[in-house]
Amino acid sequence: MQRRRRAKIIATLGPASSSARQIETLFRRGADVFRLNCSHGSHKDLKALIGIIRGLETKFGRPIAILMDLQGPKLRVGTFAEGRVTLKTGDRFRVDMSKAPGNAARVQLPHPEVFSAIGPKTELLLDDGKIRLRVEKSGKDYAETKVVTGGVLSDHKGLNVPNTVLDVGALTDKDRKDLRFALANGADWIGLSFIQRPEDVAELRELVKGRASIVAKLEKPSAIVQLEKIVDLADAVMVARGDLGVEMAPEDVPSVQKQIIRCCRQSGKPVVVATQMLESMIKSPAPTRAEASDVATAIYDGADAVMLSAETAVGDFGPGAVGIMDRIIRRVERDPYQRHLLEAGRVLAQANDSDAITEAASVVGHTLQAAAIVTYTTSGSTTYRAARQRPDVQILCLTNRQGTARRMALVWGVHAVTCGDIRTFSEMVLRAAAIAVREGMARAGQKIVVTAGVPFGTPGMTNVLRIHTIPHQAD
What we know:
Elements: E1 8-12, H1 20-29, E2 33-37, H2 43-60, E3 65-69, E4 84-87, E5 92-96, E6 106-108, H3 112-115, E7 123-126, E8 131-139, E9 142-149, E10 151-154, E11 159-160, H4 173-184, E12 189-192, H5 198-208, E13 213-218, H6 221-225, H7 227-233, E14 236-240, H8 241-247, H9 253-267, E15 271-274, H10 289-300, E16 305-308, H11 310-313, H12 318-333, H13 336-344, H14 353-368, E17 372-377, H15 381-388, E18 394-399, H16 402-407, E19 414-418, H17 425-438, E20 447-452, E21 464-469
């Protein structure tokens, strides 16, 4: 199966998409990557989903990536004596460490790291920003606040502290257990939540030790301040607009989204745009026009992938959401204006052999109207470089590592195939031609542009380019 588009689709699995039949339907409709959320479901449940996905790989002969999303620390208030209270604008409200049930005047906040970081005028956001409090006075275990925006507050609602770096790591004990499970069961990508600083990504990288790739989820303004350092440390980045939209002004989110995409394009790191892309399709069979435009904007900007969350996890029209997202992407990619935008945002090659060869492959592919650019890679670096150029030619990734092929399911424009070990470059060219024909990407008489690193198996090395015309006997 070859997708007739360049950008990829991530579908989140959940109660509405947990059976083999449901997951296969999502895959057939266009899902390239499946996201498993460690916030929900036991390890037994997640393992069953992994088994279904790997079964689909065998059935369809196409690598499928699994993104295991770690929960991260969750800041939440305690409970109320009556389950909920109504806070009125202008009221005084206290948060403290006391375990006593809350009321209209106070509630427990069992997070000492919050009290150590806040001070007068700090804003506390509750229930995804629906309720806003402003700190007037605070100590090591309490804060007296004024209600800026009131509303109904119930048990265990979440807390956000915008524009404040908290003394809490991105990995909890639960995350570490979930990470061990994910690595033991072959997750391809690990999603890291609650990133505040580059050190959070470095900590996860030390634990992963190359067994999976890391998606840095950017959902806090403090991470945007150190964007370039975080992008350098991560293998891919997710624009997690839900929490970003809570912690920063709504009008800032679109600009930040474009800033992140540009930074990732420059660094050659895959970038995912996520959250509320087709939100209305949780209950409706069709998206709003604004949602369709939102998906299209991410594709025009050159995002590698767009993600569906609740739409496929709990929605009534999950396969329809994937199908419509697929149609939007293909429609945008047929627009000559999108090609103009991608060309305008083309990344300048660095003064090294690998970048020079990769840029040349893109130019040669365009000039010759080649059927495909073929990259042979072990680690994936050669293919990442090719995708960074956003060529107008298909990218066929050949690799001897199944894990590398799976990770490519997240990368713009890449169709990955696992093949056996190859000893010489000439052998690789012949194998590339045969596979390009077999996969329906080329036919006899067409040209392919082949790049690789020689000697094979040297990560980060791309130093050979060859133009090859597919002979008629390859048909």
